[in-house]
Amino acid sequence: MGSVWALFNMSGGVGKSTLTQNLGYHLASDYGAKVLLLDFDPQASLTTFMGKSPTSFSETIANSMLDLSLPLPLVDEFEWCTLAPTNIYLAQCEIKLGGVMQKETRLKQVLDKVSGDYDIILIDCPPSLGQLAINCLAAADNLLIPIQTEYKSVEATINLLQMTFEITQQINPHLKVFGVVPTMFDSRVNSHKEAIEMITEVFEKLKANPLFKDTTIFDPVPRGIDFATATRKHLPLGLHRKNHPALEVLSNIAGSINQTIAPKEEAVING
Ligand SMILES: Nc1ncnc2c1ncn2[C@@H]1O[C@H](COP(=O)(O)OP(=O)(O)OP(=O)(O)O)[C@@H](O)[C@H]1O
Ligand SMILES: [Mg+2]
């Protein structure tokens, strides 16, 4: 079974989709992982970042969520990953989910059917605290929280931590808060450095809670214009600028994620 990772923060524009695409790329290219990228945001940024037009899909994850007998629509044309695309219909799906049985675990039920085909599934979550976000946290084994290195983003994240705690109590006791990734960091900006200190303080205080005991605060992803340029070219940064200084940080985070995946050969030998 592939492990399922939610990249989530309900704050908008903090780098969730960019990080999902780039970590997926490094997991595949640096560590040989078989990666499924799941776009679970009705804005469909990840689908667009991968060069696909959201409106070109008549069937998406939204259909699979509402009718569990339908397969998960996939795009398999990329060298380094498979994409489960989405579009605005996922917003309607969120409303329709109100009336279905076990609405919080519909995504988990969809992913359980395909997770055996991948080492890792990265979910690009929507910037909201609604039913779609709850489905992401209910389906995930691990949560990775991108936080923009701004005071506002750090403050907002505190609500997310409360929600995560409630989800582990009520719906998904297996969920681990694996790590925090500070994003868009500029070391010349004092408020960015203060935001990192604040993140460290918040998570240090939370260590007493078992849910946050092993949470890693990763090195920050630097701010750089090349991220947006790569996105416009529908490429991860590593395929746009092979020697970009931010690649080392991204590869290291991917390496930590990869360490949680049991090596296949070993699993066969031991099993
Ligand atoms: N490290 C970075 N440096 C500079 N710009 C970045 C960086 N990471 C992301 N961006 C840019 O910031 C913008 C928002 O990024 P992204 O779409 O990944 O955020 P998001 O959290 O997924 O947003 P939303 O909440 O709307 O889904 C994009 O224009 C992206 O190119
Ligand atoms: Mg996004």
TrEMBL record:
Cross-referenced Pfam families: AAA_31 (PF13614)
Transmembrane feature ranges: none
Limits of the AAA domain: 4-177
Entries under InterPro entries matching the protein: AAA_dom, DNA_Partitioning_ATPase, P-loop_NTPase
Superkingdom of source: Bacteria
The name this protein goes by in its record: Chromosome partitioning protein ParA
Species annotation: Phormidesmis priestleyi
Taxonomic classification: Bacteria, Bacillati, Cyanobacteriota, Cyanophyceae, Leptolyngbyales
